[in-house]
Amino acid sequence: MESRNVTVIGLQWGDEGKGKIVDALARLSKYVVRFCGGANAGHTINVAGEKYALHLIPSGILHPDVRNVVGNGVVFDPQAALGEIDELRPRGVAIGPENLFISQSANVVMPYHKLADSLSESLLGGGKIGTTGRGIGPCYADKASRSTAIRVGELTKGDTLGAKIRKIVELKNKMFVSVYGADPLDPDAIVEQYIGFARRLTPMICDTGSMLRAGIEAGEPILFEGAQGSMLDVDHGTYPFVTSSSVSACGVASGAGVPPSAVGRVVGVIKSYTSRVGAGPFPTEQDNETGHYLREQGEEYGTTTGRARRCGWFDAFAVRYTADLSGVDKLALSSLDVLTGLKEVKICTAYRVGGKMVEQFNPDLMPSAQCIYETLPGWTEQITTSRSFGELPSQARAYVNRLEELLARPVGFISVGPERNECIVHNMQIEGVGQ
Ligand code: GDP
Ligand code: IMO
Ligand code: MG
């Protein structure tokens, strides 16, 4: 039987609108599973005027029957997660051991990871990555180093947890003081704080990998929720201006503890233009009136850090690469409404480097790329109330059709506004969607 699983990933530099798409598909799934990243993610869902910004809690949480899973590939910040839980519960969102499952093998983000993140960024000055400051890189570095890592399962071991934290904090303090000239952290305060977190989180900690594999065996549908965007992938993105995990569909299997065959159909989320937060190459960036227009119309200010996002035209040359990398079946196009009012819209279709056309895309070429653009006519009509492809102005339809041609896959879902219902199910062919 064909898998009913779906993987939703971003194909640009994050903030493509994944939260909204995952929420739309979640009611068809038994599980919604995060497999990468951590609280650096900010996934927005708008329902009936209420805005939910999720960082570590999976975007299936608004659907009471969905089991939300934080997979082993995530770096888990207990403080951020509990903060989110405490914000969501008074708003009527039920969260507990019945619907939130945290992998015992995920690595724990500690205060020294956040401190190391900010100290390293400030020392790099002009060469900084522009991280979210959530301790993501240092936590993944400890995961790879092994000896100074703490896994979520260890939070449940009250007898050894305190001593282990104390030992690592003392070691990290040596580096903070001698290398960075910073003040040391207080080990006792951290031990006390984390023992408190552990008490609250223990009922939700389990072996999520075997739970998901049993779900696969039973034919229960799973949705894998990507975080960040493929151009931020640690192996396949614009290195070193990337995040520290495997965020393309290639990261699903190891980040969730499932076989690669469980990935299912891959939905690649694209924004109708491009945004990027933080440093790094961005060939189609419009540091001008157009970029300003996109930022203001699209309210492009970070969900996690509030930083203004850099904005520019859609880069079809880059997205064809990320879509191929993840074997994307369908595209979900967001924020088409944001382009309303532009006289013309441009799509980058190719790069020239050193006067020569580039034959094969490679992210390393981006810093020296000159974009070749195709220009299409814009439209003035507001499209937020459109609910079918035919209702869109012909210029908007032409834009969508051209993206489908350039990216060599169909656009199944078109988002025309931030609200849950502001969308057009065009050609999704996923059972239950649009019915
Ligand atoms: P994610 O990280 O991929 O989940 O995306 P974010 O939530 O960080 O950023 C997407 C932003 O665009 C959020 O503020 C959404 O509410 C908003 N958004 C999503 N889809 C649309 C859309 O179709 N139109 C408009 N105008 N905003 C959208
Ligand atoms: P969602 O899931 C946009 C960017 C940061 C920085 C780089 C490294 O909401 O799409 P990190 O803190 O991960 O070490 O920062 O990656 N970044 C994101 N940009 N959306 C995200 O997540 C991001 N997560 C990380 O801005 O450039
Ligand atoms: Mg985001």
Would you write up a description of this structure?
By secondary structure, the chain is α/β, with parallel strands linked by helices. The protein folds into 2 domains: 310 residues, Adenylosuccinate Synthetase, subunit A, domain 3 (Adenylosuccinate Synthetase, Chain A, domain 3, Alpha-Beta Complex); 98 residues, Adenylosuccinate Synthetase, subunit A, domain 2 (Orthogonal Bundle). The protein contains 11 helices and 20 strands. The strands form 5 sheets. A 10-stranded mixed beta sheet has the order 9-7-5-2-10-1-11-15-19-20, with helices on both faces. A hairpin with a 7-residue loop joins strand 19 and strand 20. Helix 5 packs across helix 6. The longest helix is centred in the middle third of the chain and has 21 residues. The two termini are 22 Å apart. The mean pLDDT is 96. The structure holds guanosine-5'-diphosphate, 6-O-phosphoryl inosine monophosphate and magnesium ion. The site of 6-O-phosphoryl inosine monophosphate (IMO) has 24 residues, from helix 4.
